[in-house]
Amino acid sequence: MLVNDEKPTEFDVFITDFNGNLRGKRFPAKSMEEIMREGMKLPVSVVALDNWGNDVLKNGLVFETGDSDGLCLPVQNQAVPVPWAAQPRKQILAMIHKPDGSPCHLDPRQILKNIVDRYKKLGLTPVVATELEFYLLDRESETSQRPIPPVVRNGNGRRLQETDCYSVKEMDGLAVFFADVREACNQQNIPADTIISELGPGQFEINMVHTDDALLAADHASMFKRLISGVARKHGMASTFMAKPYPNESGNGMHVHFSVIDEDGKNVFDNGTDEGSALLKQAVAGLLNHMADSMLIFAPHLNSYRRFQAGAYTPTFAGWGYGNRTVAVRIPESSNAARRIEHRVSGADANPYLVLAAVLGAALNGIENKMSPPKPIEGNAYTLVDLYESLPSRWDDATEFFKDSQFLNDYLGKDFVNAFSAAKEQEQNRLFGQISDIEYKSYL
Length: 444
Description:
Belongs to the glutamine synthetase family. By secondary structure, the chain is of the alpha+beta class. The protein has helices at about 30-40, 110-120, 140-145, 170-175, 175-185, 215-235, 280-290, 295-300, 350-370, 395-405, 405-410, 415-430, 435-444; strands spanning about 10-15, 20-30, 40-45, 70-75, 80, 90-95, 125-140, 190-195, 205-210, 235-240, 255-260, 320, 330, 340-345.
């Protein structure tokens, strides 16, 4: 059972960097009131570190600025418990600003806020929810640096080595773990909804409740990833949101569901038919038009591209359809009032703020320019791959699409595009410079 002690001895304050990693400081409890009031300082360059936490010297944020500080201000009204911590502790999510308190347009949360503000200028508000997939692993995975399926300790001690999609038995065997996940979500005000056993051994998906605050939806996703890791450790397991931990098993995705309401609270994607409104189709067209440009956000790491395989419920080209899980953009079956779009491209390893910014920004671009989508796809989209241009399937190719995108420069910001691509290129130089075990086995 998780402990919720109302008298923490410490608390964490953190921001989310480009890769979705949490960067911040740990303070004694006595400093909480001051931090809530005045924030904390971190170098602005921290938001643009590479995946291992190294400075990215080509982004212009380090020596050129004297590695100057930004001001991290809390985005939560109060700290929330960290119930899996060994000692009583709380945490506060923050967003980095310039030293004078004005917006820093490199912070992923601020980038999403800028997109939401563009909707507001048109009298529109996105309503958003995420679906996050993850694997539970044996704790030994952290030592071996290889994924090992976990042992279900209250399920006859068996190891989760077989796929058992939508299995209630799998969840029964982990009932105590998921009970603690729900309790931790309640304590941190994360609106976790449905729990599903997914296609991989030890793979699960937890869906979030829709909210008309896109920033809050991304907050929920970001904090949820930390929560799963913490609760899993409390239960003697590990977890991963890595896009493709097993080469021959299902990858971890982050699907985004969204609709858009007007100032009267009406869903503008609903026109009283199953087909949806003209604005829905314009949004779909924008998503398809800018999908290749945004792949570096949806698939930000070398491993991310292993998800994109035909027949793996992961899209390989920009297509759409109604009630069709083989396409990139799906219009789920629903009541007319709940007419919405599901974006199925992003991996669970991506930054939720940047994913939502890219998805909502592309949809808005389609609406603003009254774009028209192609004909919706019926049946198995994987049989049509030769008729469509493939999405970038290599990390370095996706980086070039990203850098050249006028849409991303306009909607997410030129400074962000430059800094994010610099981080990705630094990561690529490091990884592409390594010689893999399979190369030695094959060629030495």
